[in-house]
Amino acid sequence: MRTLCLITVFSVAVGVIIVVTVLVHTQGGANYSRSLTTVPAAAKEEMPSDAIAEPVGGGGLSLAGGGAIRLLAASGRNVDANVSSVESSDWAPAVLTECLQNMAHNWAPCIAASNDKIEYAEELIFPDFSVSFPILLSDNLSFLEKKLMKEHSEFDQTHVYFRGQHGQNLVITDGSYVNAPPVDRWSQSSCMSPGVQHKPLLTDGGYFAHLRFVERMKVRRDTPLDQRKVVLFLSRRGKKRDMTNESQLVSEIQALLQRRGKGEELKMFRDVNQGDFRGFVEWMGLNVLAMVGPHGGAFFNHRFCAKHTLILELMPSDRIFKGIWFEAQMLKQNYAMAIFPPLGGHRVQADVTKVVSLLDKNLGKPAPADALLHAYTWKIDSLP
Questions:
Q1: Max CA-CA distance within the chain?
Q2: pLDDT at site 197
Q3: How far does Cα 50 stand from its chain's mean position?
Q4: Is the CB of residue 124 less than 8 Å from the CB of residue 94?
Q5: pLDDT(355) > 50
Q6: Sign of the alpha-carbon torsion through 104, 107, 109, 114
Q7: At 69, which helix (H) or strand (E)?
Q8: DSSP structure string for 120-154
Q9: Is the pLDDT of residue 80 over 60?
């Protein structure tokens, strides 16, 4: 028996991200992949088996639930290359498997050419793309722009741009997995570090992996807006990074929904039955019109909501998290961010009047048509 390791590397805005899957080759010639996976207990039994081994351009990973990690892997084959009937096919990467003349030596095929322990290698080249700015409170725009100046290389008055996104799949003979630092730690010392290398084998998510994930989970993405009536409130009461005036905001949202007279109801996320995972995914896609609350891991459940769902995150200005913003735009959801002065400990006190007004103006409205675009500086529509 021979042990192989499939390493998936993503080069993204926060740094270099690495994933490993162990492949065991038996004497009979069959390949079995064992993904390094962390999935909510409720999801383990309910996750459909065909959602486990689908790659995103030869390999990739996705997040399930509140930030848990589920690896999607394949051994040396690009399943999505000829698939054009699904939404994610527009964003699938080009896959290079041969080391060509003048190719960069740190691209996967050239790494394999110089290392006899690498059985197979793929360099994944993703399309350039942009996501639109979120819906913001009137006094938030300048602050967000200053934040982007410090942390992101390219943006303009309406969009943030992502160019030159690469990934790698490396299948290594008799490799070993080193869990140092731990794979599930979201910090500058772990998966977010720009200095991450192949050796530690860190793990996180690549862009558009979540889009393929929701397709495999058969999320009800096309439920019409007027058929969805639930506004989910994601409470952090009793937790770190809570909202000091949550009760007041909840009461005002309830009053708003009554005034609107459209049969909309406010429901606390903690009261939603998540024990039946298939049923939970189905319910989210069929019913949720909006998700509202202070930023926290529960917002990752936006992946199970339909297109045009309003995602409204409340954040203190000393802890701006952009991940839900980028993901929501990629899933054609309507994303809004409300930023407030910090209270210490990343707690937030919302301006209730402003939040309720923002919710009222955007509830039931479709996502902007330019939320997600291919982003190239040259045009081809004028060619003969």
A1: 69
A2: 52
A3: 20
A4: yes
A5: yes
A6: positive
A7: strand 68-73
A8: EEEEEEPPPEEEEPPEE-TTTHHHHHHHHHHH-S-
A9: no
**pLDDT tens track for 187-241:** 555 554 555 555 433 333 356 777 888 888 899 999 999 999 999 999 988 888 8
How far apart are the C-alpha atoms of 234 and 41, rounded to whole Å?
20
Which 3 state secondary structure label does DSSP give 341? Answer: coil
| CA separation for the pair 125, 109 (Å, rounded) | 13
CB 201 within 8 A of CB 178: yes
Structure token pair of residue 345 = 């400990």
Which three-class secondary structure string do you get for 214-241? HHHCCCCCCCCHHHCCEEEECCCCCCCC
Which of 10, 166, 169, 172 is closest to 77 using CA atoms?
A: 169
At 211, the amino acid letter reads: L
Encoded amino acid at 194, one letter? P
> Which domains are assigned to the chain?
2-127+163-216 (no CATH), 129-160+220-384 (3.40.50)
**Rounded to an integer, what distance in angstroms lies between the CA atom of residue 217 and that of residue 204?**
19
**Closest CA relative to residue 237, chosen from 287, 303, 310, 294:** 294
